TrEMBL record:
Record-annotated Band domain positions: 32-203
Record keywords, A-Z: Membrane, Transmembrane, Transmembrane helix
UniProt cross-references to InterPro entries, sorted A to Z: Band_7, Band_7/SPFH_dom_sf
Transmembrane segments: 7-26
Pfam families the UniProt entry points to: Band_7 (PF01145)
Protein name: Band 7 domain-containing protein
Length: 306
């Protein structure tokens, strides 16, 4: 082999190595962004961030640079069965979905604040949840039933207010399945039933009152009748007793007069003995049963002088 050809091989090897180096360098500094991406160049060696967001395309840059990539389309945020407390402290279960996108012009600031999309997404999620809780707490239970549209607007407002500070746009908000817990539902139902019962009772009240009044009236009338009857009975008895007492008094009066006549010297002029003997025979004569008495014999059995 001649020194000439050896030289040529050396040159070829040198060129080859050089080419490989160039290709290697170019390939490390050639980056592509897809149509749905937006990126910012980041130099991993010098730790510098490019100011200009880049859209779809092929880009070259210094060795060691890379793109920090964000989606350039709307991304869906979903909250499934999120429990929140409403204005009355009742738990409401929400399904909420919306689309969000970082403002492309603010990508650099977002990267400085949040490092990359994954971190940014986490902050957006917790902020979104906080907005839902806030909106939830402004509505009472009956409003969740009757003002669903207003509730959705409340969520949109709360979200937009917070997402503006995060340089993020929100669209296509959907709120579904506003479910109240079953315990609450059954409490509501029994309350409705109670309300119906009260209504029925109220409507029956006048009738019941009339009935009660009538019963009181009847009882009063009955009471009066009983009193009148009792009074009249008492009067009758009183009269009867008075009459009987009169009669007995009259009888004794007559008897007394008769005895006076027997004893009086102007009458029969009986001695005391004679009078007692007379009384004894009166008692025996008046008796309906046989009478056994132990009485001293009258002085005389007969007052007819023999
Ligand atoms: C719920 O809020 C509405 C509007 O503020 C109000 O009219 C209604 O009385 C409230 N309902 C209850 C049960 O507090």
């Amino acid at each position: 082999m001649s020194s000439n050809s050896r030289c040529c091989i050396g040159v070829i090897v040198a060129i080859g190595v050089g080419l490989a180096l160039i290709i290697g360098l170019v390939s490390t500094s050639l980056k592509k962004l897809d149509s749905d991406e937006v990126g910012i160049k980041y130099n991993t060696i010098q730790k510098t961030l490019d100011g200009e967001p880049k859209l779809e395309g092929l880009y070259t840059g210094p060795p060691g640079y890379e793109f920090i990539v964000f989606p350039n389309t709307f991304t869906t945020m979903t909250f499934n069965r999120l429990d929140c407390l409403n204005a009355e402290g009742v738990t409401i279960t929400l399904n909420v979905e919306y689309q969000y996108k970082a403002q492309p012009k603010d990508i650099k600031k977002i990267i400085l604040d949040f490092k990359d999309f994954d971190n940014y997404k986490k902050v957006l999620e917790t902020t979104g949840e906080a907005s839902l809780h806030e909106a939830c707490s402004h509505f009472n239970t009956s409003q969740f039933q009757t003002e669903r549209g207003a509730f959705q607007e409340e969520i949109r407002t709360a979200l937009q207010k917070r997402y503006v500070d995060l340089m993020c746009i929100v669209t296509d908000l959907q709120v579904n399945n506003i479910a109240r817990p079953s315990l609450y539902e059954s409490a509501i139902r029994s309350k409705e039933r109670a309300r119906e019962d009260i209504k029925v009772a109220k409507s029956e009240e006048p009738r019941r009152l009339t009935e009660a009044d009538t019963e009181i009236l009847q009882a009063e009338t009955q009471g009066k009748i009983i009193m009148n009857k009792a009074e009249s009975n008492a009067r009758i008895r009183n009269n009867k007793a008075t009459a009987e007492a009169e009669a007995i008094r009259a009888e004794f009066q007559k008897e007394a007069e008769a005895y006076a006549f027997l004893l009086n010297s102007n009458g029969l002029g009986l001695t005391q003995e004679g009078f007692i003997s007379y009384l004894g025979s009166r008692v025996i004569a008046a008796a309906k049963q046989p009478v056994y008495i132990n009485l001293g014999t009258p002085a005389k059995t007969s007052y007819v002088t023999p």
